[in-house]
């Protein structure tokens, strides 16, 4: 989004590309629904090559490399207000799922007053190579935990889920007290920060445009990674006192270790609407074996989230107890203890 309005000081081509991206992002913000899909454009062999310098025994497992290379995260949401103006209370529906090439591994939906979720335990076991407890080995008292292992839908009242989340946050707060509010930037600091970032990007990022078929257009943004990052940090540093507590900026030494290869981001627009962003990360790997490595985000109109049929309703405390109880039963079911182990 910083790239979208950054070209005000650049060449005619930069200005044209920046204006087009600016309009595309504005158009997204005016929508009441949105879907996006995130994945890595890389094969398992490439991901293994990135981990070549890992210590023996700490290499990325083959199953995990396969999962990351073929996995994708999909999200769809709907809001009463335009998305650019929406807060948590304005969201009327949401669906998210994490998928592998063999199917959906985890899915959750927010519909009305309930949150629904299910998991493909067998799929996780296959993809990660780690054994999971079997639903057949658990007693009926395992309740919701047993149903989850069977791949069935479970639903929980969203207000109870939020209450449990707040209670857990309080437990992690100072002396069990109420946690501090999430740090945020005030409007004045945000304006200064965006102005500074846009000026740097206008100076250091080269934009190019190319027309495609059926109203499709591609805008390419290219910049040397370390140089761009260093100048962005230099612009942010004078504002550091206004940043939220705990935010630490990289030191000059940290920045010197960053690769200075040129990184390219591709923005695809169809009839003026942003449909895909792809960031080419292969050159940052600094490895001749890495030929194709990109982070890809695809966008579209969000579909309405619907409540799955046959979901079992459970209370949040019952769900937590069933997780603990079910896991304990699975762990100790076949355990044998000496006869003289008393008390």
How would you portray this structure in words?
The protein has ten helices and twelve strands. With about 350 residues, the chain is an alpha+beta fold. Helix 2 packs across helix 3 (about 60-70) and helix 7 packs antiparallel against helix 8. The radius of gyration is 24 Å and the shape is globular.
Q: For this entry, what is the oligomeric state of its chains?
A: single chain
Mean pLDDT: 79
Low-confidence stretches: 1-10, 326-343
How many individual β-strands?
12
**Helix content, binned percent:** 25-40%
**Shape annotation:** globular
**Lateral strand order in the biggest sheet:** 7-8-9-10-11-1-2-3-4-5-6-12
How many separate helices? Answer: 10
Give Rg in angstroms.
24 Å
Structural class of the helix and strand makeup?
alpha+beta
Largest sheet report: 12 strands, mixed
Q: What separation lies between the terminal Cα atoms? A: 63 Å
* Strand composition percent: 25-35%
List the secondary-structure elements in sequence, H or E.
HEHHEEEEHHEHHEEHHEEEEH
Task: List the keywords.
10 helices; alpha+beta; 343 residues; 34% helix; disordered N terminus; 12-stranded mixed sheet
What is the strand and helix layout of this fold?
Elements: H1 12-30, E1 33-41, H2 44-50, H3 62-70, E2 72-79, E3 91-100, E4 103-111, E5 114-119, H4 121-128, H5 144-149, E6 154-157, H6 158-172, H7 187-204, E7 206-211, E8 216-224, H8 225-236, H9 252-256, E9 262-270, E10 273-280, E11 294-300, E12 312-313, H10 316-332
Parallel strand pairs: 6-12
Antiparallel strand pairs: 1-2, 1-11, 2-3, 3-4, 4-5, 5-6, 7-8, 8-9, 9-10, 10-11
Helix pairs in contact: 2-3, 7-8
């Amino acid at each position: 989004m910083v790239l979208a309005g950054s070209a005000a000081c650049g060449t005619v081509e930069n200005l044209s590309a920046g204006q087009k991206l600016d309009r595309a992002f504005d158009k997204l913000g005016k929508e009441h629904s949105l879907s996006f899909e995130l994945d890595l454009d890389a094969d398992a062999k490439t991901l293994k090559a990135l981990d070549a310098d890992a210590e023996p025994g700490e290499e990325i497992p083959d199953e995990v490399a396969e999962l990351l290379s073929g996995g994708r995260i999909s999200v769809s949401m709907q809001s009463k207000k335009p998305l650019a103006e929406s807060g948590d209370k304005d969201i009327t529906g949401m669906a998210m799922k994490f998928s592998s090439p063999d199917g959906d591994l985890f899915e959750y939906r927010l519909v009305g007053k309930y949150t629904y979720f299910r998991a493909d335990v067998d799929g996780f076991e296959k993809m990660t190579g780690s054994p999971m407890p079997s639903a057949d080995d658990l007693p009926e008292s395992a309740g919701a935990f047993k149903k989850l292992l069977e791949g069935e839908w479970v639903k929980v009242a969203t207000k109870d889920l939020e209450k449990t989340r707040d209670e857990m946050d309080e437990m992690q707060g100072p002396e069990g007290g109420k946690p501090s509010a999430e740090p945020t930037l005030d409007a004045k600091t945000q304006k200064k920060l965006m102005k500074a970032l846009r000026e740097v990007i206008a100076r250091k990022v080269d934009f190019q445009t190319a027309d495609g078929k059926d109203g499709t257009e591609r805008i390419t943004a290219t910049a040397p990674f370390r140089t761009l990052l260093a100048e962005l940090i230099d612009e942010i540093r004078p504002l550091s006192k206004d940043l939220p507590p705990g935010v630490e900026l990289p030191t000059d030494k940290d920045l010197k270790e960053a690769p200075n290869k040129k990184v390219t981001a591709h923005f695809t627009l169809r009839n003026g609407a942003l449909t895909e962003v792809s960031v080419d990360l292969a050159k940052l790997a600094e490895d001749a074996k890495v030929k194709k490595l990109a982070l890809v985000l695809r966008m579209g109109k969000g579909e309405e989230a619907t409540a799955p049929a046959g979901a079992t309703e459970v209370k949040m405390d019952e769900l937590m107890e069933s997780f603990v109880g079910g896991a304990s039963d699975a762990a100790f079911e076949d355990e044998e203890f000496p006869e003289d182990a008393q008390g």
